Amino acid sequence: MSQNSFSTRRRESVGVQVGSITIGGSAPVVIQSMTNTDTVNEAATVAQVEELARTGSELVRITVNSAEAAKAVPNIRAKLNDMGCYVPLVGDFHFNGHKLLAGYPDCAESLSKYRINPGNVGYGKKRDEQFATLIETACKYDKPVRIGVNWGSLDPEMLARIMDENAKSKKPEDAAYVMREALITSALESAAKAEEIGLKRNRIVLSCKVSGVQDLIMVYRELATRCNYALHLGLTEAGMGSKGIVASTAALSILLQEGIGDTIRISLTPEPGGDRSREVIVGQEILQTMGLRAFVPLVAACPGCGRTTSTYFQELAENIQSYVRNEMTVWRDQYDGVENMTLAVMGCVVNGPGESKHANIGISLPGSGENPVAPVYVDGQKTVTLKGNNIADEFRQIVDQYVQEKYPKKIQ
Predict the structure, then answer these.
(1) CA–CA dist 267, 205 (Å, integer)
(2) Is 208 flagged in the annotation as binding?
(3) Which of 2, 44, 120, 327 could bridge to 37 as Cys pair (CB 3.0-4.6 Å)?
């Protein structure tokens, strides 16, 4: 499915400008991420923000949980600007956000967006006052706000009200339904209150995050029918490794296929010492494999079987995939459309030639027990046969030449 055919079915939402990025409206689905550094550690935070942005995160959220963190935000913004990294920063505020935004105007000004959770901004009368302070600050500095409801921190008074209403109804629903309804109600009532205070609809993004796939799908389907706010998608705690990737893909792909969702974040738990930017790559791959956006050339590779020389074939596939992703940092700035290029690295002659012909550039290895002799196909035509121990280097050169010849250079 092409991006254009899918875009006609996107749920209509009000576009929200966040720095140079638009969420919702007619804009493509936006990738975002969040640092896991202590924001007070400016050097570490700057380094991670820059890495996430370089990988492809179009917004980066940072924790602002203390006076020291609030003081660090303007310096972080300035250092990123000095590096030529202008990715919009989103401030993540919780219990004391009203104090930090009001008390540190440089922080409030330096951020491109605020994220607040209506379930933990206070209780009773204080909740209303503190929520109003957050929204008034956003209005003062003309900053958009994500009202992010989380089922682990729902407003207890609102939840009790929904439970009472359900209990008194003629056909009470189960506890799971009540929880989902409470999430949606909290988001919509908070957004309505923000508009009453003065925050315009085109400055509001909503999210209702849960950790279960089916719950997330049901919540967002219902939320999407009851408002036209821009929506942020993501499981609140996706998990680690393949579990987190699979859960996020299962939930978000269904919603995105239905046209629901304007920005996504994949909340992966990194393995010890793992790369934070992996969540950005997973988000990109979800959107690209669904045909919604293109970020890097796609590399098709067969899984391997008894016919393939697994080590040689696997090393070549990994080599090429890593190469094109690394080169995209340069190609993206120099050439138009190179992210749409397709490559195929196939392991034997059964499906190899056919798959290679369907890609812009494909290579087909002979299989197990044979000397490395690999025909290369360019736009469906066999152009050369690579032999010997330098196949990977020679294939990379062919890819480089193709990019230079086929994609127009950007006007600098």
Answers:
(1) 18
(2) no
(3) 44
